[in-house]
Amino acid sequence: MKESPEPKAPSPENTPERINTSLEDAIRLYRMRRWDTALAELLAVETERLNPEEKLERSYYLGLCYTKLDKYDDAILFLEQVVNSSDDIMRTYQCRMALAYIYVITNRSKLAEFELKRLAGSGFESAQLYTTLAYAAWIQKQTKQAVDYYEKALDLDDRNATALNGLGYILVDTGTDIMRGLKCCRKAVDIKPKNPVYLDSLGWAYFKNGEHLEARTWLRRALDAGPNMKEIKEHFKIVTEAK
After folding, report:
1. 159-243: which CATH topology?
2. What percent of the chain clears pLDDT 70, i.e. is strictly above it?
3. Separation CA 81–CA 55 (nearest Å)
4. DSSP state of 51
């Protein structure tokens, strides 16, 4: 009778303990903002050895890593897995917010609006949700709707710099209420004085209010903080050429 070979002991790198450690290591790396390394670690995990909960957790962090690395098609794939399968309400919320963000910056604002309205309809109100909805509405040239969403964001958080800047810029750029818009833009800069987008909005607000010297001062600061930002360059050119 032929002797049966003894089963081989699994190598340390392939044991469930090692796989769990890799998942934990990847999460730790993600929280350290080392997204490239975290992504590589997540992709190296052998998924057949993970339980369903661990697989969803891996998908969640893969979606976030791909989002941070601007690999949006890959991010959508994994974020949607979590949305469709997870029972964790907060994780589903975070994934829908990430999906909405991706859809906005990839010019799929209607899809962003769909995700955000589902969240709002489920009772997940937040300033971040309404500022994202507002931006999606603004891209679609729905100015009144954008203003309404920014107002809702400020009702929830009156020091939300994104909402203050967004509302202020719309009020100024459309000429709806330049003085209020200027105050909103100034408050956003007070909260985050180094943000080039907020500095640009404040400079533009001063320009729309006829204060060209102030406008040039703030737009110069915006350009110094964001030298490669197209809209800042355009605003600075307009203001410096104005009489």
Report:
1. 1.25.40
2. 91
3. 10
4. -
